[in-house]
Specification:
Distance between the termini: 30 Å
Strand order of the largest sheet: 12-11-7-10-9-8-15
Protein name: Myo-inositol 2-dehydrogenase/D-chiro-inositol 1-dehydrogenase
Family: Belongs to the Gfo/Idh/MocA family.
Oligomer: single chain
GO molecular function: inositol 2-dehydrogenase (NAD+) activity; nucleotide binding
Strand content: 15-25%
Order of helices and strands: EHEHEHEHEHEHEHEEEEEEEHHE
EC number: 1.1.1.18, 1.1.1.369
Largest sheet: 7 strands, mixed
Shape: globular
Structural class: alpha/beta
Keywords: Oxidoreductase
CATH class of the largest domain: Alpha Beta
CATH superfamily of the largest domain: Dihydrodipicolinate Reductase, domain 2
Length: about 325
């Protein structure tokens, strides 16, 4: 396919509109031909801005003859049917997390794709395309840290909407560290434990914010994640890997601390996810477009989406029970 990849963007809220603008202005070889959203005025606004058509029904948008590939940024409850429709149409799809909202429907998509002759479903875990995470991954796989023993993650947001309760924090925020751990260590997470301490006064009643989430992997490695989404400061994401031959931390360049001649020290922190991971999103989209023009994907696939849903479901159970909860996953086709 030598011409531009023709893309339908389903869902143009904050994330979908960001992707639509990127595809229209920063990504080479792509054209957004169709926009869909349940909010007709929002769909019309984005479509007019980037020169696309509005198609009111998402399944008609997927089947549109002027659509070669689909980007899904709709609410998670809509993903199962929309991703399946992309598989039925044989069209590559980039789906923002979650793959679906439950384990059974996610695994059904794993099984459905396994019947095809090529992978079509890519998940929007953009950190795999961030230069620092790629460098850290390469350092681990090359043996530069020796045997990796521990991973420590920090994930802080300045503020979030009121509906971000403890369970939503697991599904919407901790899910990124789930994929980071699997990406860096190249093994599955087998259990989740959540430690709930004193909550910030900014948290709604009944919400545990911050929390410490502890993952255990197949080989017994431990991963910790501090999740604090109402810090009131800025967007801070850091990851440290401790190995037998050294340790390495990323996320510091974006959160620079410096000293000055007047005896002061301090720095700036990225205010939001766009400033921290904007380039990663663009790289993700560019690579997906190149692969989709060949009828396939280039990045985390449907199994990665299923694994993340399974781990987060165990995490939600851990929040509810206060117990260490095993991750239950079916066999990989």
């Amino acid at each position: 396919m030598s011409a531009d990849l023709r893309i339908a963007v389903l869902g143009v809220g904050m994330m979908g509109a960001f992707h639509a603008d990127a595809l229209a202005t920063r990504v080479k070889g792509a054209t957004v031909t169709v926009v869909n959203d349940f909010a007709a005025d929002k769909a019309a606004e984005v479509a007019a801005r980037i020169g696309a058509r509005v198609v009111a029904d998402p399944f008609e948008a997927i089947a549109d003859p002027e659509v070669d590939a689909v980007l899904i940024a709709t609410p998670g409850a809509a993903h199962a049917g929309q991703v399946q429709a992309c598989l039925d149409a044989g069209k590559p799809v980039l789906c923002e997390k979650p793959l679906t909202t439950d384990i059974a429907s996610s695994y059904a998509l794993v099984q459905a794709e396994a019947k095809l002759d090529r992978p079509l479903v890519q998940l929007g875990f953009m950190r795999r395309f961030d230069a620092e995470y790629v460098t850290l991954h390469d350092l681990i796989t090359s043996g530069g840290l020796g045997n990796p023993l521990l991973v420590h993650c920090t994930h802080r947001n300045p503020t979030v909407p009121e509906h971000f309760n403890s369970e939503f924090m697991i599904r919407d925020s901790v899910v990124h560290e789930v994929d980071v751990a699997r990406f860096l260590l190249d093994e599955e997470i087998t259990s989740v434990q959540v430690l709930r301490g004193v909550a910030t006064s900014a948290a709604p009643e009944g919400t545990n914010d911050p929390m410490i989430v502890v993952f255990e992997t197949t080989s017994g490695r431990l991963v910790t994640d501090e999740i604090y989404v109402r810090s009131g400061i800025a967007y801070e994401v850091r990851t440290e890997v401790v190995g037998e031959a050294g340790s390495a931390m990323i996320g510091l360049d974006q959160n620079l601390v410096r000293t000055t001649t007047d005896g002061r020290w301090g720095g700036t922190i990225t205010p939001g996810f766009v400033e921290r991971f904007g380039q990663a999103y663009d790289t993700e989209l560019q690579r997906w477009v190149a692969a989709a023009k060949q009828g396939t994907i280039d990045g985390p696939g449907v199994w990665d989406g299923y694994a993340a849903v399974a781990v987060c479901e165990a995490g939600v159970q851990a929040v509810r029970t206060g117990e260490k909860v095993p991750v239950v996953m079916e066999a990989r086709p």
